[in-house]
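Human: We require from you a standard protein entry with sequence in single-letter code and fold as tokens, and nothing else.

Assistant:
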Amino acid sequence: MPLVRIDHSDARTNPAEIAGAVHDAIVSVYGIPERDRFQVITSRPASTIVAEDAGLGFERTDPVVIQIFTQRGRSVDQKQRLYAAIAAALEPVGVASSDVFIGYVENGPEDWSFGFGRAQYLTGELAVPQA
């Protein structure tokens, strides 16, 4: 059950396609259910997204910043495959792979509440997903 935040400039006119491509990549690599989709998509002025060179020697033209919050337990290989799948899925919707910036945050079952002020993984209302 990843929670995905996607920030992009308001110059991009296809936020639904970007969000769909990211979700499709996660479903494909992690095997989560299609309707296990929680995304926050934010379009903002380009000047409010700063993603400079991290020493890799390339320039970003119009970054898409993706934050993935998910249960811990996936392997390094799974994460690497996910990053590659997201970049590949975004190319056809007009996002260059050099413009894809991903931050990945892991947490545990105690860190989620799906409503009603309860941690449903802890109460047993939801089964803890397996990696």
